[in-house]
Design a protein that fits this description.
Blueprint: H1 2-8, H2 11-41, H3 53-66, H4 69-92, H5 98-112, H6 126-129, H7 150-162, H8 170-189, H9 194-205, H10 208-211, H11 220-239, H12 244-260, H13 262-282, H14 286-309, H15 319-331, H16 333-336, H17 353-361, H18 382-389, H19 404-417, H20 426-437, H21 456-466, H22 475-478, H23 492-529, E1 536-539, H24 547-552, E2 557-559, E3 567-569, E4 576-578, H25 581-585, H26 594-608
Parallel strand pairs: 1-2
Antiparallel strand pairs: 1-4, 3-4
Helix pairs in contact: 2-3, 2-7, 2-8, 2-12, 3-4, 5-7, 8-9, 8-11, 9-21, 9-23, 11-12, 11-13, 11-20, 12-13, 12-14, 13-14, 13-20, 18-23, 19-21, 19-23, 20-21, 21-23, 23-26
Amino acid sequence: MILKNHRSVSGEKTAVLYEAHLFSISVALVSLVLFSMLFYVVNIRLTPFHCLIFPLVSFLSFWGRVWSLRLALKHVSLQTLGLVLIGLFASWFYNLGGDGMGIHIEAIVGLESKWNPLKDPYFMEVDEYVEEFPEIRELTWAKKGVSITFSYLLSAIFNKGFSSHEAGKLINFIAIALSYLSSFLLCQKLSCRKFYQVVIPLVWAFNPVSVYQSLSYWQDSFVAGLFTSIIALTLYLAKNPKNLWIWLSYLAQALLLAGAKKAGIGFVILSTFFLVAYLLIFHFRIKTKLLILAAFAGFCSIVLGGAHLSGMWRFNKGVFGRIIQTVEHHNADHILYGGSSFNQVEDYQDLNRWSILFYSTFSRARPVAYEIELKWPFETSWDELKVFYYFFEDPRAGGFGPFWGTIVLLVLGAALVYWRRFKGNTSWLVLGLLLVFFPLLFLPTYWARWIPQVWLFPLLILLCLRSGGAAKKGFVRNSPILSLGQLKRIDLNDFAAVMCAVNCILILSLYVFGNWIGTSVIRKQLEIASKLEEPVSLGTGWFPSNRIWLIDKGIDYEIKWNVSPRIMQFYRTNTHVYISEEDYQFVDDDGKSIAQELSELKQFVQRWQKGQWLNEVYIHKGDG
């Protein structure tokens, strides 16, 4: 559809269609949240029909932008079909994120059942619904209280619609789509040539944080997608503050981000503050500036209200107390230097956060940065790439991919070579860099999952160098294929853009394949567990939500520990299924014993996924 639009319709019409998609999806997500909250007020729990709100509101919003019934029906139908296909894709993969398996899915599962968080915030009625919803048996947060973030609520709604506990990861891909649409409109507003209108939005949207957590219930992928989208919209509005549809999309996404995670409210207010400051300096008359200030105050109130509506602080010390506590936590020495539960990084002990960011940028990608490991430009190895293949969902030093440091050097080099091209965009670039770097005052700078906006630093430079269509001819103008005869015609910033794309493709392909292998292992483990005598003896360890896998397969269990020397440990967890000697020798209808199947599975794991986050995947303990 993107290529077709580029070829067959004018740039203005393309922009209108992209604006309509951006606006309709943003408003539809907010409507899902608000309608669900209203239903909770009258004690209507989540049902599969809640999902119908999304296409209905999306259609009305799209129609309101284009005023064409035919276009609205066509594009919202394609939009809905795309969401269904991506939802089915997400449903196939098991949630393999550490906190996703241990914490986040618990709240989502509760919301999928008959929990009404507004009427019963501590879910005291859990015992009444266990028979109807067996997955809430031994629910971690039941009768203790849990915040209702918008990401939890949206995931639960989509899970109900797809009848799958895994479909809710669809929201991560929706956030990526919003980030793509926003950045495309920004590139078009800057009059970038077609190559950049394709490449920059893709590498903007598929930033490493969004990608390598998209198939898990970590909330960082959703937050990263929304934040990068809001930054694109902020920069767009700095260029064109009179576009009402972009303002409305911005407001909708800001509400979602503020209610998605406590860091989101800080991201929103910082972005809005710098946007308002930019507009006050470079746009409008005095009277209008006063209105902007008033609107900013009102906007902040709305965002704070949205955050409070999400219930994130329902069981804490209040909104401002929680924000202060978070800022203090992120500025504490044990975060700054990577200590405490975030693992000690001895080489960082005497460095400030900016030095840590520098060394992290030019170091090897690591799941946990125990030491500084600087590398040469373009250097990488399988040892570094396996961070993404083995689904270490929490990369820190060098966490933006194998060529992140190389990309930064290329872009800085291009900025020096083509510095005259910044003319006319200097103030705009300063705004972008403030949006990228100011949050680092409050966040650990070596931890990629908390600083997704840093990925935009080289892209902002490239946009400034390539805006206004002032590009020289190069291989990308004439052909998407690089040939040796055209090497001498490559601009340095074109090459940097290509390296950004290569970096993203590597992470995406390795991550998806690694998740496919991991999901395949779990499916086989569950197949073996279904052949054991019930109730299966289960030790959940740090991952209590793994019990949901057994419940979905209709396998009865009881939680016990150390009941047999033979265990099957679920992929990437310390959840144990204990296997008795009788079960171990059991031969199924295919003529294979469980001992044989475990041995085959162990060989498969050692071939494809040897070396995991916690330890080797134990398929069974051999004799002695």
